[in-house]
């Protein structure tokens, strides 16, 4: 029973608060929170209704009386905190990216297996009923063979050189910013829906602002009045990737955090031989299904969807569900895996986080080499950024 779980949250910013809500709704007790300082942890404990605050995330992940730790800090802390939590016998829900590179993510996959704990990653877009419906239509053959995967993930909250966030800094966010942060969600979704794996890719990245002012923008916020120092930016604002899959499909994705007017536009189209399907994260109540004779908009209605999709519907059609509902469904499923030991099909686990890290490394390697690269898909071994991974094609 989820009611027996005692959850703790490290990092209480944008997504930490979303996790706290989902943990509660899944019936867990919010046993503790940790933030960047003792004072901010105490304030967050009272804001989120946690039993107590901890002086540091390091102390919290080792504390008695906690079953599951949610890691929602800036990226550079994911690996050390997840590793310490697993070694202390906790189950872990760790935000993406799992680590700053694929080697770190691989270490976490091994640590979780050795610890025998549940280790999941919030690729929560998998939890839209319309996404599950798209996946079912590919799986049961209604789309026919998948030929093309294409789409975008566009945001504008880092549009101006005055906009800043810890994600911009390589040491805190990792060598890839826009792609690791949001492109990884798109690739996870494209692979999840199509059942294909991205086998090789060619990428270009762009940094719109070579310098930004360290103005401390909150996630999805606007630059405040404090005009910090200008500093050099080494992470990308945008990426364009074309790829081939192991199932013989071609694809493209455009990722940007400087796309004016776009807030969280994850859009994915799967073109099959018989039917194409398009999912738009900002309009997730309707799934576009295109056939030669007619295109239809399928509503998120339990009666209209396949059973595999209908089971994620929580409200009657016409009463919109959204991002937070996906988070709730993901956390409830992660907790069920913890409590039953069940391997739940479709639940994103650390291996999926490692997969995202490998695709990200391939994107950076390709952009550096201006060449096609193979995406490393091995359970272990060198990442795609390794020297011999670069494959020249077609001159
Ligand atoms: N799965 C998703 O849909 C999704 C959405 C948003 C963010 N994320 C991921 O979640 C993580 C957090 O992102 P965010 O947007 O919430 O960022 P944020 O800046 O809003 O929050 C980060 C929080 O971590 C805290 N923090 C900083 N140093 C800390 C430390 N040493 N110990 C404990 N806490 C510390 C900060 O005080 C802040 O509250 C990132 O890794 C991001 O990639 C995932």
Spell out the key features of this protein.
disordered C terminus, single chain, 395 residues, binds nicotinamide-adenine-dinucleotide, alpha/beta, 18 strands, ten-stranded mixed β-sheet, six-stranded parallel β-sheet, globular
Tell me what you see in this structure.
This protein has a ten-stranded mixed beta sheet. Helix 1 crosses helix 10, helix 4 runs parallel beside helix 5 and helix 8 crosses helix 11. It is built from eleven helices and 18 strands. It is globular. The structure holds nicotinamide-adenine-dinucleotide (NAD).
Brief write-up:
By secondary structure, this protein is of the alpha/beta class. It contains eleven helices and 18 strands.
């Amino acid at each position: 029973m989820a009611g027996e779980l005692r959850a703790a949250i490290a990092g209480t910013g944008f997504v930490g608060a979303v996790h706290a809500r989902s943990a509660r709704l899944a019936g867990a007790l919010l046993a503790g929170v940790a933030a960047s300082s003792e004072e901010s942890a105490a304030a967050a404990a009272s804001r989120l209704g946690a039993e107590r605050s901890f002086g540091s995330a390091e102390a919290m992940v080792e504390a008695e009386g906690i079953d599951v730790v949610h890691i929602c800090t800036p990226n550079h802390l994911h690996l050390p905190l997840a590793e310490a939590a697993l070694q202390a016998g906790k189950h872990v829900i760790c935000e993406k990216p799992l680590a700053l590179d694929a080697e770190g993510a691989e270490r976490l996959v091994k640590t979780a297996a050795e610890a025998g704990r549940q280790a999941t990653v919030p690729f929560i877009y998998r939890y839209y009923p319309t996404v599950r419906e798209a996946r079912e239509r590919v799986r049961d053959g209604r789309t026919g063979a998948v030929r093309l995967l294409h789409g975008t993930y566009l945001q504008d909250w880092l549009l101006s050189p005055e906009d800043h966030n810890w994600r911009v800094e390589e040491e805190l966010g990792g060598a890839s910013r826009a792609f690791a942060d949001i492109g990884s969600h798109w690739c996870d979704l494209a692979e999840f829906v199509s059942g294909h794996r991205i086998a090789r890719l060619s990428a270009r990245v762009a940094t719109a602002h070579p310098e930004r002012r360290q103005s401390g923008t909150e996630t999805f916020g606007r630059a405040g009045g404090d005009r910090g120092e200008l500093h050099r930016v080494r992470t990308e604002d945008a990426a364009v990737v074309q790829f081939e899959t192991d199932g013989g499909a071609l694809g493209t994705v455009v990722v940007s955090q400087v796309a004016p007017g776009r807030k969280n536009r994850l859009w994915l189209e799967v073109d099959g031989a018989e039917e194409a399907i398009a999912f738009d994260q900002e309009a997730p109540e309707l799934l576009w299904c295109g056939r030669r004779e007619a295109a239809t908009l399928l509503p998120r209605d339990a009666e209209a969807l396949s059973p595999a999709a209908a089971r994620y519907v929580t409200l009657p059609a016409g009463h919109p569900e959204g991002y937070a509902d996906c988070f709730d469904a993901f956390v409830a499923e992660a907790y069920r895996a913890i409590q039953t030991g069940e391997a739940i099909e479709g639940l994103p686990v650390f291996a999926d986080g490692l997969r995202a890290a490998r695709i990200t490394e391939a994107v950076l390697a390709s952009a550096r080499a201006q060449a096609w690269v193979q995406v490393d898909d091995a359970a272990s071994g060198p990442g795609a950024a390794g020297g011999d991974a670069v494959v020249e094609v077609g001159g």
